């Protein structure tokens, strides 16, 4: 059963009409062009989107009669709002926001993965937190409540018997943009950060942060896509050729990212600088790169298990059924 967007018009391609002249020149006006907008974040998990933009990979696959625009987001909530409103046709987002919005009735499909890994839990220097077992009545930060990194961390901590105040536990939870974590560590506003790379490595390098849980050890760290390519079922049903072109471009960008590591690192550093105003040092990015695997395959069973954990943590109000959330026809 396809989830349909409630109360929002069907998502379609935005048409940008060529300027029309007066009656004497109207017959010579250009045909309308499609505009496809791709969304992504300034996180390392989203590097394939940054590479694709720099190398014009989407433009090459979509052809000369399609304009390609790009829009960046600070978190999954704003990305999903844009997808629901038809402001973007698709792009990269964490699986958590996609699941949450699917449950709420938003028309969204996961059609490929982008990367795995990249979530690292670090503690502030001076917090006296060296291991996860040291965390109790402390303040942790994530980009959003119930985002992918939040669920990974809280799942791990729940297995240790520690939960957040939201569910009657002791940990205090605040939210903020990952690019601002360094300031919050400086001001002693938080003790622990659920940091998507490269921001975990930034905190390690610049603020002497301690790695409490590494990306391979965090819950779902080796199996869960840290970023997924999503679109609407309306678009994949009505224009599968367009969606196939998007995924072919996405796959090419992943291949390029894996095959040209040095160049990809430089392009990602420059892209993050353009978006956030923070120029990351190359050794920091190289460290962060070691925690990421770029791949397009997506496992529906892992997505369901992650959703079940989100429900157990009370991020979801009902037991989820994600059997129709993952659509692998474009990567199979």
UniProtKB/TrEMBL annotation:
Keywords: Cell inner membrane, Cell membrane, Membrane, Signal, Transport. It is found in: Cell inner membrane; Periplasm. InterPro entries: ABC_SsuA_sub-bd, NrtA/CpmA_ABC-bd_dom. PROSITE patterns: PROKAR_LIPOPROTEIN. Residues 1-19 form the signal peptide. Pfam families: NMT1_2 (PF13379). Belongs to the bacterial solute-binding protein SsuA/TauA family. This is Aliphatic sulfonate ABC transporter substrate-binding protein.
